[in-house]
Description:
Blueprint: E1 9-14, H1 49-59, E2 84-89, H2 100-106, H3 110-124, E3 129-134, H4 142-149, H5 151-160, E4 166-169, E5 173-177, E6 183-188, E7 196-200, E8 217-218, E9 237-241, H6 242-245, E10 249-253, E11 255-259, E12 263-265, E13 284-285, H7 301-314, H8 320-335, H9 340-350, H10 355-358, H11 371-384, E14 398-410, E15 418-428, H12 431-442, H13 450-453, E16 473-476, H14 510-515
Parallel strand pairs: 1-16, 2-3, 2-10, 3-4, 10-14, 11-14
Antiparallel strand pairs: 1-15, 5-6, 7-9, 8-13, 11-12, 14-15
Amino acid sequence: MNSLPxxxxxxxxxTDTYDYPNxxxxxxxxxxxxxxxxxxxxxxxxxxxxxxxxxxxELLGLDAENRGTPEWNPFKDLVRPGQHTTIKxxxxxxxxxxxxxxxxxxxxxxxxxxxxxxxVLLATKGEGTIVIGDVxxxxxxxxxxxxxxxxxxxxxxxxxxxxxxELLDLRKEISQQNKDGxxxxxxxxxxxxxxxxxxxxxxxxxxxxxxEHAELFEITDYxxxxxxxxxxxxxxxxxxxxxxxxxxxxxxxPKLKTHRKAGLTCAMKNLIGINGDKRWLAHxxxxxxxxxxxxxxxxxATLWLKWHIxxxxxxxxxxxxxxxxxxxxxxxxxHHGKTADEVEVEESVTHATTxxxxxxxxxxxxxxxxxxxxxxxxxxxxxxxxxxGALQKTRQRSYLGVVxxxxxGEREGPMEHTPKKAGILIAALNPVTIDYAAAHVMGFDWKRxxxxxxxxxxxxxxxxxxxxxxDVELTSxxxxxxxxxxxxxxxxxxxxxxERDGYVEPETSxxxxxxx
Length: 516
């Protein structure tokens, strides 16, 4: 293991722990290095998550020479006293149709973040800036998100110890939805206290090979022509919070889930959340592949009419009442009053529909040739953009990813998925290495996931992962790691296209039957 460059190693900790302890997430035992923390740490019996995260860092080989001693300091080469650390969880939405378990499987949990904060404090001697921030879905309730993730309680705990941690909602836009899920108001303002920077990746953007179709770039819930001003032949720009750009150490804490547009969402896809304004993102290209788009694999008249007419109605104030009426009538007639999210979860659990039956919209399928390009752009920005937002040819900040996959999500991810008891934590110093490991344990073929496949190798001028996938080494507490296959079920838009060869879908478990 020690002969490999550190970026090529991924530590995969496999456990039978699938739930999270309550705040303030104190460790279940006293570890020798914690005597050097800038506060007195208490012990709480039963919290094994803290130990699992710690063991993941040990598996990665961080500060290996001091392992097991009071001098062990896993982040000593990543951040120093006085520096700025930004922690980026996945805080996409506050609620899930399946309740508390669904929410825990959807957003990063503070129980995983607690030991990481402690090790930042250890490395910085408590002298530095720590920011925890994200750009959730525009309509999400921030207070409910930070309560459901445990982050509000975590920050309050540290405040009582005299340690200030900033917990920031970094969205440019917060939208208001009515009870029928129709956006009725949009509030635009800069919420990062440090401001934002337009980071232009220009001709080095991965969107350039398809830039001739720039007029087709779209993002859900916004009108035609919203995205092209930010992505065209002259400019490819993202709206990055300065609380992210100012980081000397970027700590990425994603969830392990499937994703309708990207196949999987893990370390790389989580970087979509460093773009502060959704209008600056290209999620797909409008129309069919035959005409330069990648929204759907083939035209589906019923779906096209339903989606595009409703999309038009809800974008205009004069037609909002009609959009609400259409949503209500459709729900009552076809779904017996259930919400769209509830229907999606129910159908994904029961396999009630297939891609062929429902058709494809919004680029939610394996042929999406747009979103992976923005994903790679944003990963290049986090590694190669300096604090002013200018792209450099060398890495500009330290990076560590720790994946919260104890309770993950499968089927219609990232928000209407069903919980998956995976028992996985993944740690690595490179986002591509992490996603390669994530695909492996989920049972997916990394070569069929565009953002992973296209990031490997020497890619100038930004060598995101300048090595071959075959040169990645997985180290684990599980001796069967090379053959580990957790049978994650893809979204219907990716089903049959992303699984590793030899995959056989498991029978519905008792747990899934109870959820259904």
